[in-house]
From TrEMBL:
Pfam families: Response_reg (PF00072). Residues 9-123, 150-265 form the Response regulatory domain. SMART domains: REC (SM00448). Gene3D superfamilies: 3.40.50.2300. The keyword Membrane does not apply. It comes from Pseudothauera rhizosphaerae. This is Response regulator. InterPro entries: Bact_response_regulator (IPR050595), CheY-like_superfamily (IPR011006), Sig_transdc_resp-reg_receiver (IPR001789). The modification 4-aspartylphosphate is found at residues 57, 199. GO terms for biological process: phosphorelay signal transduction system. CDD domains: REC_HupR-like. The keyword Phosphoprotein applies. Keywords: Phosphoprotein.
Length: 313
């Protein structure tokens, strides 16, 4: 069967057989469902056949979920990866995001409707990715894309600023800086931005609503969050609602920050050279009514950005 015609293949990995049975029962009607209780067997399957969506538990005796998702990303980078865990573990969440580039972070016990919506959105993106890969390549797609990447810095940390300035000087990237949220919005409406590097506070204001609105309007923009805060619930919301690319704790490790920055530059160049590519990113709406209203207001303020770069993909 051609790859574009086969059903979406969904694999769940969990060391508890009852959870695997429950998940298989919930999704086997609409998807081709595979289950594995051993992460090593899951990796073997990933070496043998394409897996569109991989959902992994975090705490397993043979290998933790964050490590599995990171290794899965190396084997099948086009796959969509989701971490499912019953524990509040900020280190696991950071590892799953930074190394596994997860699409969602879900908690146990899961809400069946939320899980269903998450898998449906991931499946939709996976099918669109498949169709885009099968379509004839455009002639010299991306050949005229400039080498330099546009970076917006929303962080006054001297170490962060120094590393970004150094990268821009060496590689010819374009740097924009903002000290207030209003200034950041103005830049985003005026300039093309590929990468946003942001603390969770800018001046007197939180930046999370801006990052969440940007994820809805411009899913191609990659966000690196730099922060001293280790709050699992806040990180979960940033993963699911802002689709952040990397999360770097302060005081910043130069090595980790540079690795995050270079990964973002590489991904941005890839997307700019392939404008027809489908980006496997889709922000979840904030659950808190007040925050949802704030994000929607910012989405409206970023309306010109939507118009200039097209609808989210």
């Amino acid at each position: 069967m051609p790859d574009t015609q086969r059903p979406v293949r969904l694999m769940f990995v969990d060391d508890e057989s009852r959870i695997l049975r429950s998940l298989a029962l919930q999704f086997r009607k609409d998807y081709e469902v595979l289950t594995e209780s051993d992460p090593h067997l899951a990796l073997h399957r990933l070496e043998q056949e394409p897996i569109d969506i991989l959902v992994s538990d975090q705490r397993m005796p043979a290998m933790n979920g964050a490590e599995l998702l990171a290794r899965a990303r190396a084997l099948q980078p086009q796959g969509i990866r989701i971490l499912l865990t019953g524990y509040s573990d900020v280190d696991a969440a950071i590892q799953a995001l930074n190394d596994g580039e997860i699409f969602r972070y879900l908690t146990k016990p899961w809400n069946p409707r939320e899980m269903d919506d998450t898998i449906a959105r991931a499946a939709e993106l996976s099918l669109r990715q498949r169709a885009a890969r099968a379509a004839p390549a455009g002639a010299a797609a991306g050949a005229d894309i400039p080498h330099g990447i546009a970076i917006l810095l929303l962080d006054g940390d001297p170490l962060v600023e120094a590393r970004v300035l150094e990268l821009c000087a060496v590689d010819g990237h374009h740097l924009h800086r903002a000290r207030q949220v209003d200034e950041a919005i103005a830049i985003l409406n005026r300039e093309h931005v590929d990468i946003v590097i942001s603390d969770l506070r800018l001046g007197e204001h939180a930046t999370a609503p801006l990052l969440k609105s940007l994820a809805q309007v411009r899913p191609h923009a990659l966000t690196i969050v730099t922060t001293p805060y280790q709050d699992t619930q806040a990180l979960l919301a940033l993963i699911n609602q802002a689709q952040i690319f990397r999360y770097v704790l302060k005081p910043v490790s130069v090595k980790l920050f540079e690795r995050a920055l270079h990964a973002a530059v590489t991904q941005s160049r890839h997307w700019r050279a392939r404008p027809q590519a489908v980006v496997a990113r889709a922000a979840e709406a904030p659950r808190d009514e007040g925050e949802r209203a704030a994000v929607n207001g910012l989405v409206g303020m970023l309306g010109r950005l939507r118009g200039r770069f097209g609808a989210p993909v």
